[in-house]
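Is this the right way to post structure tokens for a design question? Let me know if I should format differently. Anyway, here goes:
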């Protein structure tokens, strides 16, 4: 299953119009629609698949879902996830979703109450957006369906665009479109026929307490959780893994081998002159685990074919900045014959504390532990002493001072419109930072981009480290087991990497992005000039857009290319 959609209209839902709109993203499958008075709900069905819907006299549920476990009990793949989700919602309401391990986007129409409930998995790995005009409301896996239904104009959200062009992290309910909102991961949203909206959060990582235990005990529990999460996501299907030289995807490669899965590991390779190769550590680990290893050359420059493919591949004006990379990976996954592709997303916040952890030790008077953590960040991880000191000071500053500093950050000069600043108090502890990162992940659009990209190739996208069983294990780690002592991500290394931990080498890709930027300036100057649509329509400042040629802005022009390509596609 690869998507859901629906329409609620007190005057009577038009199922035919809904099916017609759903065909705009037919790569997800053939739309199947059920209509009853004010509501029409739909799913996509591919050849050989059963429709992912559950119906009773009281309610009707559609879902794009894979359910791996409920309250810690593994669920056989033969069990339809939609029936399990419908049963949980019927008995416990949205709060019951906290016991589900899996990826899902769902919609449930309660006929007795005249209410629609929408929800997603904790990290938003299956997309779901919604919009409404008056008392008409619709939801879908892709925004273009809502535009086609007349629930959104298709006009771009200027604040979201400004943030994207300024290279600020995007998240929350905003999408690239004015009237289209994201259902946040780990949350639920309800709407009734009177237009009333309710919402809440069922994902509550703050309820999982840290536990004092040995590194060996923590590693044993974590290994079991990651292996189980990996096995359930593959489930005897041909699998691919996006394998870098880092620890996160490397741990997934080991977990796959321990689960008896042999995968095709795909590693992007670059011109050696750029100095960002991860080829050797990735290949050595993959082959040692019995996997097939394939090098995927990253394109050296942006081509007309890349530009033509980008709008459909991303489905949004706020697409992949380095889209040649993404498109080459999709082709490689399809060529490998995979039905599911995994990655190591999520490992960074879960298993590596930030330098603010030093402050945790200082508050407790544990000076030697604070010094050891600071040395670990400096020598074994990516935060030298000045960065550690800065993080500690920043965590102690009041929010008004931080807000003033944020307002002084200058975006690229061609960015038009207001760029939202974050004046909130930063996390004052490593645990608060972890919980905040997990909650924010439910509004991050990155997973939605990857899901759509691979869905177009008929491949399911999954991130086993973001399984809620793995997340609970990580949340229970005390701060001592998340600082880089004796090595980075110590529990993950002990649990899965073993002797391969010392071989992990994560590259920096800035040189590659700079090369792409230089080529696009020379090959497609019309995309970055004062006559570009982005300038003529006021998303970029035409009198300042010439600054894209200045080397000091590095890869900052790449998002402008994605936006301009979208505008030309829809013109």
């Amino acid at each position: 299953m690869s998507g859901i959609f629906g329409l609620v209209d007190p005057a009577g839902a038009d199922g035919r119009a809904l099916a017609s709109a759903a065909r705009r993203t037919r790569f997800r499958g053939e739309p199947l629609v059920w209509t009853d008075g004010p509501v029409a709900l739909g799913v996509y069905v591919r050849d050989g698949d059963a429709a992912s819907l559950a119906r009773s006299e009281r309610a009707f549920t559609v879902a794009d879902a894979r359910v791996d476990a409920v309250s810690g009990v593994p669920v056989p793949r033969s069990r339809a996830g939609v029936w399990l989700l419908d049963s949980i919602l019927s008995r416990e309401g949205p709060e019951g979703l906290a016991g589900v391990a899996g990826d899902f986007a769902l919609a449930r129409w309660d006929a007795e109450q005249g209410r629609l409930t929408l929800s997603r998995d904790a990290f938003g790995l299956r997309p779901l957006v919604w919009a409404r005009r008056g008392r008409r409301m619709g939801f879908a896996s892709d925004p273009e369906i809502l535009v086609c239904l007349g629930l959104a104009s298709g006009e771009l959200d200027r604040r979201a665009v400004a943030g994207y062009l300024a290279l600020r992290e995007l998240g929350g309910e905003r999408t690239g479109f004015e009237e289209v909102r994201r259902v946040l991961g780990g949350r639920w949203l309800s709407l009734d026929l009177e237009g009333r909206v309710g919402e809440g959060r069922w994902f509550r990582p703050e309820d999982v307490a840290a536990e004092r235990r040995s590194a060996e005990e923590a590693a044993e529990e974590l290994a079991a959780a990651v292996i189980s999460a990996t096995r359930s996501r593959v489930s005897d299907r041909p699998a691919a893994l996006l394998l870098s030289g880092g620890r996160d995807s490397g741990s997934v490669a080991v977990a796959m081998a321990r689960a008896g899965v042999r995968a095709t590991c795909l590693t992007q390779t670059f011109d050696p002159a750029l100095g960002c190769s991860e080829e050797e550590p990735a290949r050595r680990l993959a082959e040692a685990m019995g996997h097939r290893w394939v090098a995927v050359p990253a394109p050296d420059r942006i081509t007309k074919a890349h530009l033509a493919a980008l709008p459909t591949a991303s489905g949004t004006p706020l697409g992949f900045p380095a889209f040649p990379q993404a498109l080459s990976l999709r082709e490689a996954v399809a060529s490998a014959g995979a039905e599911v592709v995994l990655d190591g997303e999520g490992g960074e916040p879960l298993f590596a504390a930030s330098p603010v952890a030093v402050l945790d030790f200082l508050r407790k008077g544990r000076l030697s532990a604070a010094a050891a953590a600071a040395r670990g960040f400096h020598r074994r991880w990516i935060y030298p002493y000045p960065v550690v000191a800065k993080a500690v000071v920043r965590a102690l500053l009041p929010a008004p001072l931080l807000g003033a500093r944020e307002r002084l950050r200058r975006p690229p000069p061609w960015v038009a419109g207001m760029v939202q600043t974050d004046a909130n108090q930063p996390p004052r502890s490593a645990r608060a930072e972890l919980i905040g990162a997990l909650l924010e992940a439910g509004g991050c659009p990155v997973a939605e981009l990857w899901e759509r990209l691979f869905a177009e190739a008929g491949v399911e996208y999954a991130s086993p480290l973001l399984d809620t069983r793995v997340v609970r294990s990580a949340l229970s780690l005390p701060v001592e087991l998340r600082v880089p002592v004796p090595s980075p991500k110590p529990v993950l290394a002990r649990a899965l990497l073993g002797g391969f931990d010392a071989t992990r080498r994560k590259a920096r890709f800035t040189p590659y992005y700079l090369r792409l930027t230089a080529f696009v300036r020379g090959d497609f100057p019309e995309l970055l000039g004062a006559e570009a649509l982005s300038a003529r329509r006021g998303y970029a400042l035409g009198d300042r857009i010439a600054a894209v040629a200045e080397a000091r802005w590095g890869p900052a022009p790449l998002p402008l290319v994605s936006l301009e390509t979208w505008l030309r596609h829809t013109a």
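Format looks fine. Someone answered above. Worth noting: The CA atoms of residues 62 and 205 lie 26 Å apart. The radius of gyration is 24 Å.
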